Amino acid sequence: MKVLREEEVLTAKGGSIMAIYRLTVFESSGDKLVDEAIEAITDTDAKELGEKFLAEKQLIDKTHRLVSPDGRLILFHV
Question: Which residues contact 22 (CB under 8 A, 6 or more apart)?
Fold first, then answer.
């Protein structure tokens, strides 16, 4: 009997693999306020989740960035 990895099970069921993005929020002094992992299927989903998180925590006006698992900048605000 073959044991399937999670990726194989999701793919077999037609699902997508979640990627982990990093949302970081900074104070103007440079101090890190938030370093949060966001799981999403696409960059667009990650951006929407990041913006929602920032709005809920009232951090939307703080300096922030959202980075994809491969290091691409998805969202940035100074």
Answer: 35, 36, 37, 38, 66, 67
Per-residue pLDDT tens over the stretch 25-44: 999 999 999 999 999 999 99
pLDDT, mean of residues 47-67 = 97
- Contact predicate 23/34, CB 8 Å: yes
Q: Kindly provide the residue ranges of all beta strands, DSSP E only, lying in 1-78, ordered along the sequence.
A: 19-26, 32-40, 63-67, 73-77
Share of the chain above pLDDT 70, in %: 81
31 and 20 in contact (C-beta within 8 Å)?
no
Give the pLDDT band of residue 62 (cuts 50, 70, 90): very high
